[in-house]
Amino acid sequence: MTGWCRFHVTERRRTCEWIDCMQAIADDYPDADRIRVVLDNLSTHNPAAFYRFFPPVKAREYLDRFEFYYTPTHGSWLNMAELVWSTLQTQCLNRRIPDAATLQSEVAAWEAERNELDVTVNWQFTNEDARTKLHRLYPTVEEAED
Fold first, then answer.
1. Reduced 3-state DSSP string for 59-124
2. φ/ψ of residue 67, rounded to 5
3. pTM for the whole structure
């Protein structure tokens, strides 16, 4: 929404990498009372994991600041974050990258350029559009009463 994005390139997609990412986001917004995070439904994206990595008081502090929104499993393409990810793949990852260090460097350069340009998403897909296009996923009031 603000035109700012952050990517973390990691070797694996474990819960500990996700927790590191959440810590970095919290550090990016030290004065924010509430940080809204859009997530896919990957099993590692579990708020209860904060209690595995931090003492209870610290875990609760993080969880009080974060507000998690999970993308629908059948409609993740509706998510603005997915649009940014798709753009990264098209503009930066559309070739063979020889090693992890080069990958991290390339993604960091792409991220810096995108953030400098202050690119935002002009979202025009309405709830009504979603109900029309995805009618089989959205029951009508009449169907729900049957």
1. HHHHHHHEEEEECCCCCHHHCHHHHHHHHHHHHCCCCCCCCHHHHHHHHHHHHHHHHHHCCCCCCC
2. -125, 115
3. 0.71
Q: How many residues does the chain have?
A: 146
Assess contact for 80 and 49: CB atoms under 8 A: no
The average confidence (pLDDT) of the chain is 84
Contact assessment for residue 5 and residue 82, using Cβ atoms and an 8 Å cutoff = no
C-beta atoms surrounding 123 within 10 Å: 10
**Which residues, including other chains, have CB under 8 Å from residue 29's CB and lie 6 or more apart?**
35
Task: Kindly report which listed range (51-60, 88-97, 134-143) carries the lowest average pLDDT score.
Answer: 134-143
